[in-house]
Design a protein that fits this description.
The complex is a heterodimer of chains A (about 300) and B (about 325). Chain A has about 300 residues and is mainly α. Chain A has helices at about 1-10, 20-55, 60-65, 75-80, 85-115, 125-130, 140-150, 160-170, 170-180, 185-195, 200-210, 210-230, 230-235, 245-255, 260-280, 280-295. Chain A is globular and about 75 Å long. Chain B has a two-stranded antiparallel ribbon. The chains are: A mainly alpha (about 300), B mainly alpha (about 325). Chain B: It comes from Actinacidiphila acididurans.
Chain lengths: ~300, ~325
């Protein structure tokens, strides 16, 4: 408690003036509120303009300058969705993300169960191996992944994206699932085993239902980066029919003169599902992130 | 302090180990040893089956690619030729000093990376700690504001980077806002990313904007675990709001600051997606960073035999990340 003694050594309390304190408290609260709102605006600033441009037409977006469109129009978004193939990109993104999430949950819930509950030779070593994966920079393995998939003939397919995405999420998913499974009382498994239940039965009927919050957290923390992934996707996919949303956006921006209204409408289509997902499942997200960072 | 970082894995294995001398099955005392033996075998087998999919995927997508990349860093190859030309550590030498075509570029990129590694962690702490303190003192709106502050993190990706690009243009929203506020002299007629002098600082600001949410959340969680009585004691002793935060709260959250700084150091060292999307290293390589250089060598050189160089640069980044991780451990250990 060294901090306490240090604080005690400071100047004695000033004479209290109730009226003054009230005013300064009130004033302070207004200042705090203003500062907090200001940073809220900073956080949302690019999004405000994204929305603004998405509701402008070609002429108005070039004139720029004003946030609120003078002639707001839905045409830009519908054009981007229909004519610029964003519906197709959207479905591709959904497919890649859903596959990645489902596989991640299946593979690493099982692994986490083994690490947390079962005693088997090599457990400690394997666990360390998966955590060590965290320290390998993405760029270091990206090239070998592309070369390997080229050899295997899955480069450019969605499964070729899903496999490295699932593997890339291993350290975090294992960390979170192992933590959740070891919090389940061991007696539950013991008594089920005595009653003759098999290991798989214990896992699916007892452990999985009890760790649903952790499963949702892992699903979220997998889904969001996968939805936004651009680097590996860009060097893997080469057929426009397989493009995910980030690559769709990329094609829009690489036109000679980027039409910022279409580009921002596309960006809005990318961002909205993620924001909705985050807002509806925020609790899991925040808990998981704090747990992940501490690990 | 509960926020002291402790790997969940260590806890899990610890918990597992404590039950290792398992109590024999109830009522089966006589056959206890044989049963335990058979149960061990069954448990080991199921353990292996449960980790099998994860391990199989790891062997192919993890271990194989890592090994392949490591070997490739000692060879020269263009990705199409049937054979690799083994060159030993020449790739590393070329990158670090030997080859005038690569070494100066790498050094240039390293300088930029270093700027980013200094500025981003520093600014992130400077913004997120006060923000968390203020947010913690706000009673109403706390949840709403926390969600708002978090949007930059969940949306982080190409879509948001394009939005930034849009508002940083010559006739974009940032310049327009400066003119409206009567600070038109600060506006950048070439655009904030077009002017070689403002491009890197602008990229740093955008990176910090994206890094603040997680840091703020970690500080906020840390602040909420601080015992109220500690703060009340400080207040009774006459410490004002400012002083209480500076000399009581700030030292208490120091472990969090260490994590925030080191996470951002790592991301600044390796991250390059923002740069690839927003500037592609331009104007005139003024925002080229090491990760971007490695990406270029790997994917954007067509038929030039630079794949080995790309791998070598990747491994140099890995080595730097490892050093950071070790410092990380040392710093955290010494604090707890």
């Amino acid at each position: 408690m060294t901090t306490d003694t240090r604080a005690a050594g400071s100047a004695p309390a000033p004479p209290a003036n109730p009226a003054l304190t009230t005013i300064s408290r009130y004033g302070a609260r207004i200042v705090v509120g203003l500062l907090l709102t200001l940073y809220g605006l900073v956080s949302l600033y690019p999004f405000l303009w994204m929305v603004s441009a998405a509701f402008k037409n070609q002429v108005e977006v070039i004139r720029g300058g004003h946030l609120i469109p003078h002639h707001p129009t839905f045409a830009t978004i519908t054009h981007t969705w229909n004519e610029l193939h964003f519906f197709r990109y959207f479905m591709n993104s959904v497919e890649v993300t859903a596959l990645t999430v489902v596989l991640t949950l299946a593979v690493y819930a099982a692994a986490g169960y083994a690490f947390a509950v079962l005693d088997f030779p090599g457990r400690g070593f394997l666990q360390k191996l998966f955590v060590a994966l965290l320290f390998v920079p993405g760029i270091t393995v990206m090239l070998p992944i592309v070369l390997l998939e080229n050899k295997m003939g899955i480069l450019g397919t969605h499964i070729g994206l899903v496999l490295p995405f699932v593997n890339g999420g291993a350290p975090l998913s294992i960390l979170l699932m192992t933590g959740a499974f070891s919090a389940v009382p061991k007696e539950l498994r013991e008594s089920a085993r005595v009653d003759g239940a098999g290991e798989f039965h214990v896992f699916t009927r007892i452990y999985l239902p009890l760790t649903r919050p952790a499963l949702i957290t892992v699903a979220l923390l997998t889904a969001i980066p996968t939805w936004n992934e651009y680097l590996l996707t860009r060097v893997s996919l080469n057929n426009a029919n397989t493009y995910t949303l980030p690559l769709g956006l990329q094609t829009l921006s690489s036109e000679n003169v980027p039409h910022y209204n279409n580009l921002m409408a596309g960006a809005l289509i990318v961002v909205i599902p993620v924001v909705l997902l985050f807002l509806s499942l925020q609790r899991y997200f925040v808990n998981g992130l704090v747990g992940a960072v501490k690990g | 302090m509960t926020t002291a970082p402790r790997p969940a894995v260590a806890e899990a294995t610890g918990a597992g180990r404590s039950t290792a001398p398992r109590p024999p099955g109830t009522g089966l005392l006589g056959r206890a040893t044989r049963r335990t033996g058979r149960r061990r075998g069954y448990e080991a087998l199921s353990g292996w089956l449960f980790v099998l999919p994860a391990v199989a995927l790891f062997l192919v997508m993890g271990l194989y690619t890592v090994g392949y990349g490591f070997l490739l860093s000692f060879a020269r190859w263009n990705g199409f030729a049937p054979h690799w030309d083994w060159v030993g550590v020449q790739n590393y030498k070329d990158l670090l000093w030997a080859n005038p075509a690569y070494a100066p570029r790498v050094r240039h990129a390293a300088t930029h990376t270093l700027y980013v590694m200094i500025a981003v962690p520093l600014l992130t702490v400077l913004v997120s700690f006060p923000l968390a303190v203020l947010l913690n003192s706000a009673r109403r709106m706390q949840t709403l504001l926390r969600s708002v502050y978090f949007v930059p993190y969940v949306t982080s990706g190409i879509a948001v980077f394009f939005a930034w690009q849009y508002i940083l243009q010559p006739d974009g929203a940032v310049n327009a806002a400066l003119k409206t506020l009567g600070m038109g002299s600060l506006a950048q007629p070439q655009g904030w990313l077009g002017n070689p002098h403002t491009a890197l600082p602008t990229m740093i600001v955008v990176t910090v904007w994206g890094a603040v949410p997680v840091a703020m959340l970690m500080y906020l969680t840390g602040l909420q675990t601080i015992d109220r009585s500690v703060l009340e004691a400080a207040e009774l002793d006459g410490a004002g709001w400012w002083r209480a935060n500076a000399s009581v709260v700030w030292p208490l959250v120091r472990p969090i600051t260490a994590i925030v700084v080191l996470l951002n150091l790592r991301d600044s060292l390796q991250g390059f997606q923002t740069f690839l999307v927003m500037t592609n290293g331009g104007p005139g390589d003024h925002t080229n960073v090491l990760g971007l250089e490695a990406y270029r060598l790997a994917f954007l050189k067509d038929l030039a035999p630079t794949l080995g160089l790309a791998s070598a640069l990747g491994w140099l980044l890995f080595a730097a990340a490892l050093v950071l991780a070790l410092i990380n451990l040392r710093v955290l250990r010494s604090r707890t």
